[in-house]
Protein backbone atom coordinates (compact mmCIF):
# COMPACT_ATOMS: atom_id res chain seq x y z
CA UNK A 1 0.00 0.00 0.00
CA UNK A 2 1.29 3.46 -0.88
CA UNK A 3 0.68 6.51 1.26
CA UNK A 4 0.77 9.99 -0.19
CA UNK A 5 1.67 12.92 2.04
CA UNK A 6 -1.35 15.10 1.31
CA UNK A 7 -3.92 16.90 3.40
CA UNK A 8 -7.31 18.44 2.77
CA UNK A 9 -7.42 22.05 1.59
CA UNK A 10 -9.96 22.97 4.28
CA UNK A 11 -7.15 23.13 6.86
CA UNK A 12 -5.07 25.58 4.80
CA UNK A 13 -5.02 29.28 5.61
CA UNK A 14 -3.63 32.01 3.36
CA UNK A 15 -0.17 33.27 4.18
CA UNK A 16 -0.09 36.92 5.19
CA UNK A 17 3.12 38.83 4.92
CA UNK A 18 4.02 41.71 7.16
CA UNK A 19 3.08 45.17 5.90
CA UNK A 20 6.52 46.38 7.02
CA UNK A 21 9.24 45.74 4.41
CA UNK A 22 11.95 43.26 5.52
CA UNK A 23 10.23 42.81 8.88
CA UNK A 24 10.73 39.49 10.67
CA UNK A 25 8.95 38.95 13.97
CA UNK A 26 11.23 37.14 16.41
CA UNK A 27 9.78 34.51 18.69
CA UNK A 28 9.32 35.70 22.27
CA UNK A 29 11.94 34.53 24.73
CA UNK A 30 11.33 31.44 26.78
CA UNK A 31 11.57 31.39 30.55
CA UNK A 32 13.97 29.04 32.32
CA UNK A 33 12.25 27.41 35.28
CA UNK A 34 13.90 24.51 37.13
CA UNK A 35 16.19 23.89 34.14
CA UNK A 36 13.18 23.51 31.81
CA UNK A 37 12.32 26.00 29.07
CA UNK A 38 8.80 27.36 29.46
CA UNK A 39 6.64 29.81 27.53
CA UNK A 40 4.09 32.15 29.05
CA UNK A 41 0.42 31.29 28.69
CA UNK A 42 -1.99 34.16 27.96
CA UNK A 43 -5.22 32.19 28.23
CA UNK A 44 -6.75 28.74 28.28
CA UNK A 45 -9.36 28.79 25.52
CA UNK A 46 -10.89 25.30 25.44
CA UNK A 47 -10.54 21.78 26.76
CA UNK A 48 -11.15 18.32 25.34
CA UNK A 49 -10.64 14.68 26.13
CA UNK A 50 -8.63 12.78 23.55
CA UNK A 51 -7.73 9.12 24.09
CA UNK A 52 -8.77 9.43 27.74
CA UNK A 53 -6.38 12.33 28.33
CA UNK A 54 -7.26 15.93 29.07
CA UNK A 55 -5.95 18.64 26.69
CA UNK A 56 -6.20 22.43 26.82
CA UNK A 57 -6.14 24.87 23.92
CA UNK A 58 -3.43 27.35 24.91
CA UNK A 59 -2.89 30.91 23.68
CA UNK A 60 0.81 31.77 24.04
CA UNK A 61 2.18 35.21 24.89
CA UNK A 62 3.77 36.90 21.89
CA UNK A 63 2.70 34.30 19.33
CA UNK A 64 0.04 34.74 16.62
CA UNK A 65 -3.35 33.03 16.78
CA UNK A 66 -2.12 30.39 14.35
CA UNK A 67 0.37 29.16 16.98
CA UNK A 68 -2.25 28.16 19.55
CA UNK A 69 -1.73 24.55 20.54
CA UNK A 70 -3.54 21.71 22.30
CA UNK A 71 -1.40 20.81 25.30
CA UNK A 72 -1.80 17.91 27.72
CA UNK A 73 -2.82 18.87 31.23
CA UNK A 74 0.67 18.24 32.64
CA UNK A 75 2.13 20.91 30.29
CA UNK A 76 0.02 23.68 31.82
CA UNK A 77 0.76 22.95 35.46
CA UNK A 78 2.37 26.36 36.05
CA UNK A 79 -0.71 28.14 34.67
CA UNK A 80 -3.09 26.70 37.26
CA UNK A 81 -4.78 30.06 37.91
CA UNK A 82 -5.70 30.31 34.20
CA UNK A 83 -6.95 26.71 34.20
CA UNK A 84 -9.10 27.40 37.27
CA UNK A 85 -10.46 30.58 35.68
CA UNK A 86 -11.34 28.65 32.50
CA UNK A 87 -13.27 26.03 34.49
CA UNK A 88 -15.11 28.71 36.48
CA UNK A 89 -16.28 30.28 33.20
CA UNK A 90 -17.06 26.94 31.51
CA UNK A 91 -18.02 24.41 34.21
CA UNK A 92 -19.43 21.91 31.68
CA UNK A 93 -16.17 21.61 29.71
CA UNK A 94 -13.97 18.57 30.36
CA UNK A 95 -11.71 19.08 33.33
CA UNK A 96 -9.48 17.22 35.76
CA UNK A 97 -11.02 14.39 37.74
CA UNK A 98 -10.21 14.29 41.42
Written account of the structure:
The structure is a single chain. By secondary structure, the protein is mainly beta. The chain has a domain of 64 residues: OB fold (Dihydrolipoamide Acetyltransferase, E2P) (Beta Barrel), CATH 2.40.50.40. It contains one helix and five strands. A three-stranded antiparallel beta sheet has the order 3-4-5, with helices on one face. A two-stranded antiparallel sheet has the order 1-2. Strand 3 and strand 4 form a beta hairpin. The longest helix is centred in the C-terminal third of the chain and has 10 residues.
Estimate the mean pLDDT confidence.
Answer: 83
- CATH architectural grouping of the domain at 26-89: Beta Barrel
- Cα distance, first to last residue? 45 Å
Q: Indicate the overall shape.
A: extended
Report the C-alpha radius of gyration, rounded. 17 Å
Please write the CATH class name of the domain at 26-89: Mainly Beta
Task: Please give the share of residues in helix.
Answer: 10-25%
Largest sheet, strands/sense/barrel: 3 strands, antiparallel
Q: Structural class of the helices, strands and pairings? A: mainly beta
User: What fold name stands as the CATH topology of the domain at 26-89?
Assistant: OB fold (Dihydrolipoamide Acetyltransferase, E2P)
Strand content: 25-35%
Query: What are the secondary-structure elements, in order, as H or E?
Result: EEEEEH
Strand order of the largest sheet: 3-4-5
How many individual β-strands?
5
Uncertain segments are none
Total helical elements: 1
Amino acid sequence: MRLHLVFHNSILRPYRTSSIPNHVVPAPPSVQHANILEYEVVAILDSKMMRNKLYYLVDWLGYPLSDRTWEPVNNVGNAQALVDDFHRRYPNKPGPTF
